[in-house]
Write a structure and sequence with these properties.
There is one protein chain. α17 crosses α20 (547-564). The chain is an alpha+beta fold. It has 33 helices and 23 strands. A seven-stranded mixed beta sheet has the order 12-13-14-18-15-17-16, with helices on both faces. Strands 1-2-6-3-5-4 form a six-stranded mixed beta sheet, sandwiched between helices.
Length: 860
């Protein structure tokens, strides 16, 4: 790794990682919302982040995003309290382009007058989105209540009234004073030549002179002298609550102790708070603990969701548990487990080039020491049980406690909580398939293994084909509960014991479910692979499906479904999906509906798993740092115990679904009969409006699928014509993009935008204009090439982690595709032509067969 400071004060950090031909180029500006001086609360840092891609002395705004897309890159930025970061992730052969472009944007933006005004309207939409989101409102309330003097009390995005008063002169003054070389850190990680890369950085950044950097006074938060509370009642479905205590900052000697305390108390299903409040007392749906301390002060937080009648009960149980821990302390194994979890999290964060660059940037900018991580973990390993107990008694005290909550209105809460009516086979010879070794057993089960020793981590994933299409239509949501309960009790261990067994070594064990599959994933450090196999084997072969655990998880899933109703965008997407697909299984996602989940009994879960768990419907994939000779026999023995069988109706579900998809040429007409073409309006008590429109689309394994991939990028990228017109030119929406819901035999291609109430028709008209442009073949060749480059690079980036590779491989095997089918991706994307896009838009994006939904606020 190379670290140097250029003569103009710019800090450069470069690290070579040749494991993939990818790179992440990041520019960290040491300025955030706490540095805005007499403009505190106006959101200048975030405003400036939006403006830096609007044009420079050398490039027009649209040229920036188009250039990145053309080189297969992804460009974005974010703003926090103490920093603003701009980054491009892309193929490493184009690193010099990324350095040049970011240097131009960060140091030479022109802040065009017209763009300043238009972007203000866009950010006003973003502020409205934040005010519509109950989770954002909760945490803004927490920071405003917990901090009285420190700038943390102001939202990073700014208060709406203060933000609205920003003028270009103020924005430019802030830019000129803070965006100087001696306040920047450039971090580059990837398959690069460090010396050549440094020369590029020196050339692009080194010519700008050091700037005068006026110090900014950041007021320290005085010691809190008494507890604070803020409890609001609003139009929400469930309780969201947060309790926090003042704690010192990242470099304080107690920081590692507090991080460990948060892990022990509230990280994972085996944690103390999860077990005591969720599993035993049953007063919360979710609960966790965290320590947020990036500066000189911070907050130790416990947050939870619950039913409205349980918030005070949950707080009482929490207080009781904390008092008990303050007296009895913590077990050595709890500390060992927490340290292991933190190490595993650190390893996971470094799997991608972007993750590595982010860790280096944070070490330099936030901690001020590139070796902070190493020293931090050395300090962690020295933490004792006595120190943990002392930290709890010192910091988690009534004097510095702040509690905030968002609570349902009584009438709504009453409605929400009202009760409702209610064969072993020997294996075949192994063969090599691409990067994975494939073992196919006589019962049809498959094992995939890919050894990759770059990082000390191994990922195991067991997948079954399933999802909404395999459920009883009257009991939608079975898939979500099946996967969740598979990760809980087994005949050998209780759910708590399962969690403790895997989390005690820093591992993670979690379920997943989607449109076409469900399964389990285990991730551990290499020495613990046997423990991972044991957990997976017990879950797959000896699940207990206990009635008491089922009842808890059923209520949690119901709470999650109601929680979705609090977010207007999430609810809008679900409503569109249901109207579009009608009675087709894809009308409901794997978590189901309130009505469907309420009808489920524990026996339904066991029966559904029994229908899915047969040889040809099961795949296990392993990727990472492991020894195949040791792992293969264990997992083969596991899979040999899965019975031979077939889903109801017989046959292989993956191959038959693919066959159906390829044979059906009338997707558009087929889908039109399923749902409700037409225009619909829903009224919600929100500040923003959301417009959605769904069209028929190609299923996963149909010839048009790859054309839809390109079309999605064409409509959704930052360089898209639709984004440029709707957001950049006309400031009609904060976000506008396309999206897809796909399964093995059907699909929806949709558009989504968040806009200002009263401007919904204008946004929809722009979507029509863009569709017509594609239908008439007016897509430019350069535009198509940019989309193709971005998609190909995106696929390369998506396969950096062990988890992603295992998931891709297992789904390919399950669905009857070559294990390494991703190797064909580039060629299929490159084969798409402008004529293909026009034919796709003419065939699928037909207004008469669309389902349109507008969700808007009540008229004033």
């Amino acid at each position: 790794m190379l670290r140097t400071v250029l003569p103009n004060g710019l800090t450069v950090i470069i690290k070579r990682d040749a494991s993939a031909a990818l790179a992440s180029v990041q520019v960290w500006v040491k300025t955030g919302s706490i540095h805005e001086g007499d403009q505190l609360g106006a959101g200048l840092s975030h405003y400036l982040e939006h403006m830096l891609f609007k044009g420079t002395e050398r490039r027009a705004g649209r040229e920036i995003s188009a250039t990145v897309q053309a080189h297969g890159g992804y460009i974005n930025a974010y703003t926090t309290f103490d920093r603003t970061v701009y980054y491009i992730d892309l193929p490493s052969e184009h690193t010099a382009m990324a350095v040049d472009l970011l240097a131009d944007a960060v140091l030479s933006s022109t802040l065009p007058e017209g763009e300043v005004a238009k972007e203000k309207e866009v950010i006003m939409r973003e502020i409205a989105m934040t005010r519509d989101d109950p989770d954002d409102r909760l945490w803004q309330a927490m920071f405003a209540t917990a901090f009285r003097e420190h700038p943390y009390r102001f939202p990073v995005i700014g208060h709406r009234e203060l933000f609205a008063g920003n003028e270009r002169g103020e924005l430019e003054g802030y830019y000129r004073s803070r965006y100087v070389p001696n306040n920047l850190v450039v971090v580059i990680v990837g398959g690069i030549d460090p010396d050549e890369t440094l020369k590029v950085v020196e050339e692009k950044f080194g010519g700008r002179s050091r700037g005068r950097l006026r110090p900014v006074l950041v007021t320290e938060e005085p010691l809190q002298l008494g507890p604070r509370e803020l409890h609001v009642t609003e139009d929400v479905e469930i309780v969201r609550a947060a309790i926090a205590w003042q704690v010192p900052g990242l470099t304080h000697a107690d920081a590692p102790v507090l991080d460990l305390l948060a892990m022990v108390l509230g990280h994972g299903d085996s944690s103390i708070l999860w077990q005591e409040l969720r599993e035993k007392a049953k007063v919360v749906h979710t609960i966790d603990a965290s320590c947020w301390n990036p500066g000189t002060s911070g907050l130790f937080c416990v947050s939870f969701t619950s039913e409205s009648g349980n918030r005070e009960k949950a707080e009482a149980v929490l207080d009781k548990v904390l008092k008990r821990c303050a007296v009895k302390g913590f077990k050595a194994q709890d500390i060992k487990q927490a340290v292991r979890q933190l190490i595993a999290n650190e390893v996971a964060s470094r799997q991608t080039m972007s993750g590595q660059a982010s860790r280096l940037g944070a070490a330099e900018v936030v901690a001020g020491d590139l070796h902070f991580s190493q020293q931090y973990f050395e300090r962690l390993e020295r933490v004792t049980a006595a120190q943990l107990k002392q930290a709890l008694k010192k910091y988690l005290v009534r004097q510095t406690r702040t509690a905030v909550s968002s609570n349902p209105m009584e009438a709504k809460a009453a409605i929400a909580t009202a009760p409702k009516a209610t064969g072993k086979a020997s294996r075949k010879k192994a063969e090599s398939v691409g990067e994975f070794e494939l073992v196919t057993l006589k019962n049809g089960a498959r094992l995939l293994l890919q050894q990759e020793k770059r990082l000390p981590q191994v990922h195991l994933r067991m997948v079954w084909q399933g999802g909404p299409g395999f459920e009883d239509p009257a009991k939608r949501g079975t898939s979500g509960l099946v996967s969740t309960l598979l990760s809980k009790d087994t005949k050998r261990r209780s759910a708590a014991e399962v969690a403790r067994y895997i989390e005690s070594v820093g591992g993670s064990f979690y379920p997943f479910s989607g449109n076409n599959s469900l399964g389990l994933a285990v991730e551990v450090l290499p020495p613990d692979w046997l423990r991972a196999v044991s957990v997976l084997s017990d879950a797959a072969l000896a699940p207990a499906f206990r009635a008491d655990t089922f009842a808890v998880e059923k209520e949690a899933q119901l709470a999650g479904l109601r929680q979705d109703l609090d977010d207007v965008v999430t609810e809008g997407r679900k409503l569109l999906r249901r109207k579009f697909f009608g009675d087709h299984p894809m009308g409901i996602d794997a978590n189901g509906t309130v009505e469907g989940v309420e009808k489920l009994a524990a026996g339904d879960i066991a029966a559904q798993y029994g229908r899915l768990n047969f040889g040809s419907n099961v795949v296990i994939a392993v990727a990472g740092d492991f020894e195949p000779k040791a792992v293969k026999p264990k997992l083969t023995a596991l899979l040999e115990k899965v019975t031979v069988g077939a889903v109801a109706g017989g046959g292989d579900p993956g191959k038959s679904a693919i066959k159906r998809g390829k044979a059906r040429g009338d997707h558009a007409l087929h889908l039109r009969r399923l749902g409700q073409p037409g225009d619909f309006v829903e009224i919600r008590d929100k500040e923003q409006a959301v417009v959605l429109r769904g069209y028929p689309g190609p299923a996963l394994h149909t010839p048009d699928y790859y054309v839809s991939e390109v079309a999605d990028e064409l409509f959704s990228g930052m360089a898209s014509q639709l984004f440029e017109r709707v957001r950049e030119e006309k400031s009609l929406a904060y976000f506008v993009r396309s999206s897809r819901v796909t399964s093995l035999d059907t699909a929806m291609f949709s558009f989504l935008a968040g806009t200002k109430p009263g401007r919904e028709d204008e946004v929809l008209a722009e979507i029509d204009i863009e569709i017509e442009r594609v239908q008439t073949g007016k897509v430019e060749e350069a535009e198509l090439r940019r989309c193709q480059a971005r998609l190909k690079a995106g696929r390369r980036q998506s396969l950096q982690t062990n988890a992603a590779r295992a998931l891709h491989a297992s789904l390919n095997a399950l669905q009857g595709l070559p294990i390494d089918d991703w190797k064909n991706y580039d060629a299929r994307i490159e084969a798409v032509t402008i004529a293909d896009l026009a034919a796709f838009a003419m065939k699928y994006l037909v207004r008469a067969q669309a389902t349109q939904l507008v969700v808007r606020p009540k008229p004033a």
